[in-house]
Amino acid sequence: MHVVDGALSNEVVIAGGVLAAAGIGWGLRKMDMEKIPAAGMLTATFFVASLIHVPIGPSSVHLIMNGLAGLLLGWMAFPALFVGLLLQAIFFGYGGITVLGVNTVAIALPAVVMHYICRNGVKSTQKKVAVLWAAVAGGGAIFTTALVVTLALALTGEEFIPAAKLVVLAHIPVILIEGFLCGSAVALIHRVKPELLRDTPSADGSPVHA
Amino acid sequence: MPKFYITAFFALLLMTDQALAHKVVGSGWTDGADIEGEVGFSNGDMAKKGTVVEVFDADDNKIGETTVTEDGLFRFTPTQAVAHTFVANLGAGHVARFTMGVDELPKMAATQTPTPAIAPAFDPTDLQKMIAKAVRQEVQPLRKEIASYKEKNNMQAILGGIGYIFGLTGVVFYIMARRKEKAAV
């Protein structure tokens, strides 16, 4: 899913960088101590999950787990996923340094969007409802990521509709798998650590549940 | 019920038959007065027939283009003694790009010094071509292997990455703690 160096026009790369920087900055401002361990774990999850590659057509597909990161982290998903992408670019050459901004936006923005769409559903005390919304977040995040990537390619000159169709079609298995995984993760969290799903605390950073 | 979910999950995983490699690779070599090259994915899938390969000089001026033929190779006859950069767009954000320096280019027809024939029935350029072809065939599997080797995600790097993430988490914790302490004072 990572766009590689040289595939996008300079304007798109710069715009991606600016948007990513803004998102990261906002995410860091919203950071609170309670969520740091979760952010670290989810970054590690993303880092490893993205290494399992599945070639489909001319694109490649892999798990991203950005839906789960978005649900639990909100805006903090930006800095967290950025770190994951940076390390992937350095260690494995996935994506690239110049397109880091675009990739960060493509992966973290859907996470944040899903956070706001599915947050209330996931907070439900009824487990079934919560799991269902989590599955929507997991699958929806991938779908949105696919759209953002195609949009970036479209702005560079590739035909939007056929490219989008191809990318979205290629991601259907991943959308299903991620929906399933995200749902399972929330089912587990619901059972063992339900406070993780609740809203964090007041502005002064004091924990709600102590 | 959970059993059903687990089965369904593994069924989905099987559907995707995992593999590594999705990076694009490109390389070129000389063949007589031509440059022959190939572009494709590092798992060994070559570019489809008809894929356009654009050729640029060192200053990014387009100097020509060619297309990939049946066997995944393309052919380009250089006319200028400058570095040639080959760019092929394989779609969905995959762009293969590689450069051949001036020293890698085939000898231009014009600059080739006419070699006196050693024996009338024997053309040294033919021999050169044959040797070049044989070497290329021998080296082909090696190149594929090297390409896939480059792709390998080794365990150390993965563990190293996780270590970095945990380390960064610690650093952020430290900064936040300091901030909190200051705010308390």
Query: What is the CATH architecture assignment of chain A?
Result: Orthogonal Bundle
- By CATH, the architecture of the largest domain in chain B is named Sandwich
CATH class of the largest domain in chain B: Mainly Beta
CATH classification, class level of chain A: Mainly Alpha
If you average the pLDDT of chain B, what whole number results? 73
Let me know the average pLDDT of chain A. Answer: 81
Q: Helicity of chain B, in percent?
A: 25-40%
What is the CA-CA span between the terminal residues of chain A?
40 Å
Work out the largest interface and the residue count of each chain: A-B, 49 and 43 residues
- The unreliable regions of chain A are 201-210
CATH topology of chain A: Arp2/3 complex 21 kDa subunit ARPC3
Annotation field: number of helices of chain A:
8
Element string of chain B (H = helix, E = strand): HEEEEEEEHH
Q: How much beta of chain A, percentage-wise?
A: under 5%
Overall SS class of chain B = alpha+beta
Order of helices and strands of chain A: HHEEHHHHHH
Radius of gyration based on Cα positions of chain A: 17 Å
